Amino acid sequence: FTNLDLRTVNASERDDSLHVASLPTTAVSESLFNMLLNEIISYVRALPSTTTSESQASLIESIGYSVGLRLSSILLLSDTSTNLTTSSKSAKQPLQTLPIPGGINLDPSNSLSVVKYLCKDFWSSIFGHQITKLQTNHRGVFVLKDDNFPMTKEFTVSGVGEGGSTNKEERTRVMTILTLSYPCGLIRGALKGL
Amino acid sequence: KHPAQLRMSKLPLSRTGDLCWSRTPKTNSELFTLTYGVLVTQLIRDFEDTERVNVELKRMGRNIGVRLIDEYLSKVSLATSSVPSCATFRQTGESIAKVAFKMFLGISCDFSPGPGSEASGGGEEETEGMDEVNSFTLTLSDNPLSTFVEIPPSREGLSYSNLINGVIEGSLESVGMRVESRFLREIEKDDDVTVIRVRLRERIKDG
Question: According to DSSP H, which parts of B48-136 are helical?
Fold first, then answer.
């Protein structure tokens, strides 16, 4: 895997687009969202129809998917300062200051620009910061790394139960996978929405 | 710390609320609204009976409330360098309206002591002079849980934002008050505001 540069090309021309990285005007507390997500996960785990971790993760993922789908269309429509180009290497894209409904210059066939959109604009609008590190193997696989991911930042698993440390590790692993299914669905839905 | 700084905070509640909100890590409210919406949809699919959905939303809210109160107490203590404490139920209600709603949902709501009127839902009772009330109403002109949500007529029994009532009940129970919280009016049902009525049923004695 090679590292990809997420910095803006031609920063001087495109300073306005960096404003997307600031927080949206309407916000709620991060901890409240995390608690809501946790309740959803507990609910899914207690459902009689989802007895295995796989089925639970799958349901959580599809919940994330529904949200991601709608979220990306809302963000595309409300975004006025994004200036995505078809090619990140192109040097002379004019700065667009007028909002174009749904008309972001995003070339869907260029998966690299789509992924960059995801890492920068989409991620910033939702979480207030960009993806820390993006890697690719140039064969269609991308690795997105976020050092400061809100949903798992303050993650603790209660230590009650037998089995000692391996049991707790196992439960931590299971809970982490369940929790992360949500953003996986989010990404899948967001991409579908694009 | 200087002993004088450990007194009860003299800040007006709305300033405390703003202060706590400014220190809160925030996330996109649309993410929150949509997530909540998908949850309600899922519950409707699973339970079909509208009243059971209301009950489930309140139950989930109570779980959240029990954890939220800890965060509320510690953040307010940190922000004001004093112990948050409410001597009367009225003060409790004011704190919820001006501090708690602000620091978690980013909105503040209007507080009215007294039970409000069932018909108009507003706080029309003249209880200005009374410190010891056992109910109050909170009026929200805007509800982040339900932006753009409308309830279809087939589901008019649904209290869409019932999670909030659960949060209020769960958090107050953790600090010794058993209350009942419900909506008198709801924006999702074509009312112009959402009005929550909180009624104190009993104080839980330590023991």
Answer: 50-80, 89-95, 101-105
